[in-house]
Amino acid sequence: CVEYTHPGFVYLVKRPSDGAIKIGLSTDPEKRARAIAVKETGAELLQMCEVSCMLTQETILHKRYAEFRIVGEWFALPDDKATDLISAFESRRLDLSIAKLTAKTH
């Protein structure tokens, strides 16, 4: 049983059919991305970031991008929003970047 309140990873997977991005959590994002690719042909892992609490970070991101939600954890992010999110992941400092991302909503 995975404890989602423990350290782990938040990841981004891109679906090639429509460019949607899945914001998810996992202790093994590469394995999770392979599982997603079985259902969503060609889906690829864009980024992953180790975080102190998977559920907290994923929830914050889901709330931040709620207006772009397609279904479940899939989002149709405009290019500028996708670029900002990917940059936060690339910095490997998502825990610190969350405050900046959520501040933009106020």
Describe the 3D structure.
The chain is α+β, with helices and mostly antiparallel strands and 106 residues long. 42% of the residues lie in helices and 25% in strands. The protein is built from 4 helices and 5 strands; from the N terminus they run ββαβαββαα. The chain has helices at 29-39, 54-64, 79-90, 94-103; strands at 8-14, 21-26, 44-51, 69-71, 74-75. A 5-stranded antiparallel β-sheet has the order 3-1-2-5-4, with helices on both faces. Helix 3 (79-90) packs antiparallel against helix 4. The longest helix is centred in the C-terminal third of the chain and has 12 residues, at 79-90. 27% of the residues are buried. The model is unreliable at 96-106 (pLDDT under 50).
Spatial extent as radius of gyration: 13 Å
The total of helices stands at 4
Query: What's the N-to-C terminus distance?
Result: 36 Å
SS-derived structural category: alpha+beta
Global morphology: globular
Strands ordered across the widest β-sheet: 3-1-2-5-4
Helix content: 40-55%
Largest sheet: 5 strands, antiparallel
Instruction: Give start-end ranges of low-pLDDT stretches.
Output: 96-106
| Order of helix and strand elements from N to C terminus | EEHEHEEHH
Record field, number of beta strands: 5
Short description:
By secondary structure, the protein is an alpha+beta fold. It has four helices and five strands. α2 (54-64) runs parallel beside α4 and α3 packs antiparallel against α4.
